[in-house]
Specification:
With 258 residues, the chain is mostly beta strands. Helix content is 11%, strand content 45%. It has two domains: 125 residues, SH3 Domains (SH3 type barrels, Roll), CATH 2.30.30.40; 121 residues, endopeptidase fold (from Nostoc punctiforme) (Alpha-Beta Complex), CATH 3.90.1720.10.
Length: 258
């Protein structure tokens, strides 16, 4: 069984409870596979990154196998406004955020699960990955507050930020920093890095705990308290406000977009 998110931002939790830890979020138009159930809760696997967690069944709508196959067979259309309105049933609205997905989008209209929608905002249809606007996409999240498990401009964590920036460039990557560190090609030296590469940072036990996107001029954009820009060198991230290194550099990874 499959389902699709028909609300703006839906919490995905570690356990079947509203009190449970937020581990990620589903954005409008993203699909899941239902793998278990418990009362009104559904254990799901997110189809874009294989993340597994629990959602309230009232916050998604069922998606047929055939419709899912049709969605996956076409280039995805993604929203590029920080927030914009979706209209359905003439006067009902849903505010959706940057990076939401619009299945079967044509000329400001799209549909799924028997419902027709209108969207009059900025979109981009991703026929293939495109790195050309990756840094501009990253800057759209500047000053978004840090939120563990978040994936939106109104609350995002470090790996949610990098995942969403890469989604906006048409390249899906995994959800958590340690998973993202296992993807891509290793860049051996910081001096060999390029803008858009991902830099990963570890704790004293050697576990990857943080990720950011390398910018020109020995800088990095990352989510730490908020999405911010700091200095980067071979030691790690130097926070000028605190006048100290806050994260120790472990590895740099590059994704090839063509």
């Amino acid at each position: 069984m499959f389902a699709i998110c028909n609300l703006s931002i839906v919490p995905v939790r570690a356990e079947a409870s509203d009190k449970s830890e937020l581990i990620t979020q589903l954005l409008f138009g993203e699909a899941v596979e239902v793998i278990d159930k418990k009362e009104q809760w559904r254990k799901v696997k997110l189809l874009h990154d294989d993340c597994i967690g629990w959602i309230d069944v009232k916050q998604v709508t069922q998606l047929s196998d055939d419709e899912l196959s049709a969605i996956q067979a076409q280039p995805g259309t993604i929203t590029f406004d920080i927030v914009q309105l979706v209209i359905f049933e003439q006067n009902h609205i849903i505010p959706i955020v940057l990076g939401s997905s619009l299945p079967f989008y044509v000329s400001k209209r799209f549909h799924f699960s028997g419902m027709e929608y209108t969207y009059d905002g900025s979109v981009k249809t991703m026929a293939k990955p495109d790195k050309s606007q990756l840094l501009e996409n990253a800057y759209m999240y500047l000053n978004a507050p840090y939120l563990w498990g978040g994936r939106s401009p109104f609350g995002v964590d470090c790996s949610g930020f990098t995942q969403m920036v890469y989604k906006l460039s048409g390249l899906p990557i995994r959800r958590d920093a340690w998973q993202q560190a296992e993807q891509g090609t290793t860049v051996n030296l910081l001096e060999e890095s390029l803008p858009g590469d991902l830099a990963f940072f570890d704790n004293p036990e050697g576990r990857i705990i943080h990720v950011g996107i390398i910018l020109p001029g020995n800088k990095i954009i990352h989510a730490s308290g908020r999405v911010r820009i700091d200095k980067l060198d071979h030691h790690g991230i130097f926070n000028e406000t605190q006048q100290k290194y806050t994260h120790k550099l472990r590895v740099i990874k590059r994704h090839h977009f063509s």
